[in-house]
From TrEMBL, chain A:
An annotated GO BP: transmembrane transport
Protein family per UniProt: Belongs to the binding-protein-dependent transport system permease family.
Subcellular location: Cell membrane
PROSITE patterns for this protein: ABC_TM1
Keyword terms: Cell membrane, Membrane, Transmembrane, Transmembrane helix, Transport
Residue ranges occupied by any ABC transmembrane type-1 domain in the UniProt entry: 110-319
Gene Ontology CC terms, in alphabetical order: plasma membrane
Protein name: ABC transporter permease
Membrane topology of this protein: Multi-pass membrane protein
Source domain of life: Bacteria
Species of provenance: Actinospica acidithermotolerans
From TrEMBL, chain B:
Biological processes annotated in GO: peptide transport; transmembrane transport
Positions of transmembrane segments: none
Protein name: ABC transporter ATP-binding protein
NCBIfam families in UniProt: PRK11308.1 (NF008453)
Annotated keywords: ATP-binding, Nucleotide-binding, Transport
PANTHER family (alphabetical): D,D-DIPEPTIDE TRANSPORT ATP-BINDING PROTEIN DDPF-RELATED, TRANSPORT ATP-BINDING PROTEIN
PROSITE patterns: ABC_TRANSPORTER_1, ABC_TRANSPORTER_2
Gene3D superfamilies recorded: P-loop containing nucleotide triphosphate hydrolases
Native organism: Actinospica acidithermotolerans
Residue ranges constituting the ABC transporter domain according to the UniProt record: 7-263, 285-530
A Pfam family hit: oligo_HPY
Tree of life domain: Bacteria
Family, per entry: Belongs to the ABC transporter superfamily.
Length: 329, 538
């Protein structure tokens, strides 16, 4: 177990290093000059050179990359033209655009996605597993077909359409919910939830269909197995068999996919965030990409990769927890 | 013997759509008695067993006739008056299941819930029927485990995958016992198990009958298994009863030809051996100090599957390899056809080192070395027709002409006793015996010199088993094959082998001529011999 985690940690470090290198590499292959973007339209050659100097863009790529990596661990002193600013470890540099520390941008954005995923995952798992079990109780019956169809329908609608529809219904026509803005959990729990209700449902409804199908298929497969026959032969009710025993066969798969989906949403729900105007990692990612803001792009990408690696590791651990035959070493 | 019966079955009929599985079975089971239901697959015996617990409900099978369950004379139990299981409401049926009639199945490996601890599963059954508290249920489950010879202290919290097949079947019997049912329906309870384990389970069932007066319905394709463990036998064929009577009577003076066939098919240790085919003096296969070690994987310790085995096989000879599961016999077989890389040691085939072949040379030599597997249902590609599967080895080895391929396959089909109309059928459309014949055809179509048969008949009914064994004997002569015949049942092995190697824990503990089995010295060999179920002598 410890050996497993240590190995995963080392692998994660290697992956993050490669990701950072690829982002840097891509950055220099792309057209566009971040210095002139940052400098603005009326910018003469001298000013541009000054900006380059400040941004560190005049140094060789490998040197910039090394500075970037080393400052994560050791911090880095930046010369902003007026004086020196100390960026303490873990330092991911400063945004070319806003001059804010990247770590600060990330720590502002991450709570949005954590809030998004916390509610959405609870919803989509309850909806997906619940209706999956409901559908599996009488396979191919009316309620099975109806639930499967509805799940598929929601899953097929692009999330920005669904988001628009929800906004239209709840905020414009019925006016029962406010247009979402992000209120931190620590500030006001009620408002936090109220504002996130629509984004939660948008994500959950899109995802739940998948979980419904996974649960239904896993349960139906389990229902044909010998150990379920044993339960029937000992007088267990069908309802109990489905809800307590057959569902166990579906859970490892559901948990694995869930961990990865949660990782995916955490790492930036681009559409949801922009539809509901939430300042999360997805928005940060889009904004930084459109302004070629290298430190922010790298920072967001690294954090996203890290979250996905963590999610995968959690998925593997869950697999072992949910299936006693799987051992982790 | 006129005590009140527990169960009265009248004119039980079962059909699956247009297929009739059972055509009017009537029987009566008295307390403490044991009844054997015997027949080949397709005889309707399992369908009958499932109907006794109403387990066909919701499956689309039509069940007719009456299955009357009488209440306990003491007034205890779930019912106060006779109940017809066919017409009982779901709730009544649910309360009867396990509590009055308990069932154990052919598949002990998969019949326990893999996600829950063994002890908890047994306790769960107790709680369900007796509405007992967790402590009492746990105590009763532990008691039931002890009753079947499982140490509850150390094994209560184990998961099914930590148990061997025999242990799992014991646990399932414990699950039945915890409810103190009157009847145990055992559907092929030992077919998936080694002979030695089979003997232990049968002994356990006998002991429980004696100790707690359990009635038993024992279902098997093998009259020898049923023989020593029941009072009466009922022989079924294609859904019809062909014979019934006290077990001694039926076994020693069978009236019906079908019963006689079943009896003759049983592999016996005292059966006359076929005349031995003279093997040439030159060795074809020489195994020297072979070891196979599986490195530790995912937390499990390294296992030495084969531990310093040496043996020599003459050209045209047939060697039987016997042992329980885990003895290393399959690993040895796979190493001989080079599907398993040995950890150390040397295998020479026709004077050359098997390990030295690589790439194309190895592929060319594969033609000489073939393997027949235990379960043809999974070793034949389900998405490929039988004919295509048999032709494939020829195609792999370069035959392209369609007519020649078809002729070769047709010839081979005929040779293994299959009609050439089966060419375009798929494995699931064939019976177990037909599938194994097809697998043999596929192995022989390249005219190999050495064939390793890994438990080729242990998934088959005794009658089919006898036919396939006979076929292998004929083919061995006709194709001048050298055979390695791997099985857990000594009585089967000795029918096809000139010499028999007995394996235990990766080592060959004894190597005997097939004719000299009774002179076996090694205690392990003697244990295997005594585990073979014996028929009462006429």
């Amino acid at each position: 177990m410890t050996a497993f985690l240590v190995r995963r940690l080392l692998a994660a470090a290697a992956v993050l290093l490669i990701v950072a290198a690829v982002v840097y590499g891509l950055f220099y292959l792309m057209p566009g000059d971040p210095a002139s973007l940052a400098c603005g339209k009326r910018c003469d050659a001298a000013e541009l050179a000054q900006v380059r100097q400040t941004m560190g863009l005049n140094r060789p790529v490998y040197e910039q990359f090394w500075t970037f990596i080393s400052s994560i661990f050791a911090g880095h002193a930046y010369d902003n033209g007026v004086g020196t600013v100390w960026c303490s470890a873990p330092c991911l540099g400063y945004s070319f655009q806003s001059d804010e520390p990247v770590t600060q941008l990330l720590t502002q954005a991450l709570p949005v996605d954590v809030s998004l995923v916390a509610g959405a995952a609870v919803l989509w798992l309850s909806l997906g597993i619940g209706f999956g079990l409901f559908a599996a109780m009488r396979p191919n019956g009316l309620r099975d077909k109806a639930t499967t169809f509805v799940g598929l329908a929601f899953g097929s609608v692009p999330i920005f359409i669904l988001a628009l529809l929800l906004l239209l219904l709840f905020c414009v026509w019925w006016q029962v919910l406010p247009f979402p803005t992000f209120v931190p959990f620590t500030q006001n729990v009620g408002q936090w939830a109220e504002n996130l209700l629509l984004p939660w449902f948008a994500i959950a409804l899109t995802f739940a269909g998948n979980y419904l199908r996974l649960t239904r298929a896993g349960v139906l497969e389990a229902l044909g197995q010998d150990h379920i026959r044993t339960l029937r032969a000992y007088g267990y009710t069908e309802r109990r068999i489905v809800a307590r025993h057959a569902v166990r066969g579906a859970l490892p798969t559901v948990a694995t996919i869930a961990a990865m989906d949660i990782g995916g949403v955490l790492a930036g729900a681009v559409f949801t965030e922009s539809m509901f105007g939430l300042p999360g990692l997805g928005k940060l990612m889009v904004d930084s990409a459109s302004t070629i803001d290298l430190p922010v792009i790298t920072g967001v990408t690294l954090l996203a990769s890290f979250l996905i690696i963590v999610a995968n590791t959690v998925a593997d651990l869950l697999y072992a927890v949910l299936d006693p035959r799987v051992r982790i070493s | 013997m006129t005590s009140t019966p527990i169960l009265t079955v009248e004119d039980l009929r079962i059909s699956f759509g247009a297929v009739n599985a059972l055509n009017g079975l009537s029987l009566e089971l008295e307390p403490g008695r044991a009844l054997g239901l015997v027949g080949e697959s397709g005889s309707g015996k399992s369908a009958a067993a499932l109907s006794l617990l109403g387990l066909h409900r919701g499956t689309g099978a039509q069940v007719g006739g009456r299955i009357l369950l009488h209440p306990r004379p003491t007034g205890a139990g779930e019912i106060a008056e006779p109940v017809d299981i066919n017409t009982a409401d779901d709730e009544t049926l649910r309360r009867i299941r396990g509590r009055e009639l308990a069932m154990i199945f052919q598949e002990p490996l998969t019949s326990l819930d893999p996600y829950h601890r063994v002890g908890d599963q047994i306790a769960g059954v107790h709680r369900l029927h007796f509405r007992s508290g967790p402590d009492e249920a746990r105590a009763r489950a532990a008691q039931a485990l002890e009753q079947v010879g499982i140490d509850a202290r150390s094994k209560y919290r184990a998961y099914p995958h930590e148990f061997s097949g025999g242990m799992r079947q014991r646990a399932l019997i414990a699950m039945a016992l915890v409810l103190e049912p009157r009847v145990l329906v055992a559907d092929e309870p030992t077919t998936a198990l080694d002979v030695t384990v089979q003997a232990q389970i049968l002994q356990l069932l006998g002991r429980l009958r004696e100790e707690i007066g359990l009635s038993l319905i024992l279902i098997s394709h093998d009259l020898a298994v049923v023989g020593g463990n029941v009072d009466d036998v009922l022989v079924l064929k294609s859904g019809d009863e062909v014979e019934r009577g006290p077990v001694r009577e039926v076994l020693t003076r069978p009236q019906h030809a079908y019963t006689k066939d079943l009896l003759n098919a049983i592999p016996r240790l005292d059966a006359e051996l076929p005349t031995r085919i003279a093997a040439s003096a030159e060795p074809l296969l020489k195994v020297t100090d072979l070891s196979v070690v599986f490195p530790s994987h995912r937390g499990s310790a390294a296992t030495t599957a084969v531990d310093g085995v040496s043996l020599e096989l003459l050209n045209g000879e047939s060697l039987g390899v016997v042992g329980e599961s885990g003895s290393g016999k399959s690993t040895l077989g796979r190493s001989i056809v080079r599907l398993q890389k040995p950890t150390s040691g040397r295998i020479e085939f026709a004077g050359r080192d098997l390990g030295s072949w690589r790439g194309k040379a190895l592929r060319d030599h594969r033609r000489d070395l073939q393997l027949i597997f235990q379960d043809p249902a999974s070793s034949l590609n389900p998405r490929r027709s039988i004919g295509d599967s048999i032709a494939e080895p020829l195609i792999v080895h370069g035959e392209k002409d369609r007519d020649r391929l078809r002729a070769a396959v047709d010839g081979m089909l005929e040779r293994v006793g299959l009609d050439d109309s089966l060419y375009h059928r798929y494995p699931h459309q064939l019976s177990g015996g037909q599938r194994q014949r097809a697998a043999i055809a596929r192995a022989l179509i390249l005219r190999p010199r050495l064939v390793v048969c890994d438990e080729p008949v242990s998934a088959l009914d005794v009658t089919t088993q006898a036919q396939v064994v006979k076929l292998l004997r004929e083919l061995r002569e006709e194709f001048e094959l050298t055979l390695v015949f791997i099985a857990h049942d000594l009585a089967v092995v000795r029918q096809v082998s000139d010499r028999i190697a007995v394996m235990n824990r990766g080592r060959i503990v004894e190597l005997l001529p097939a004719a000299g089995l009774h002179e076996a010295q090694d205690p392990y060999t003697r244990a295997l011999l005594s585990a073979v179920p014996e028929l009462p002598v006429a």
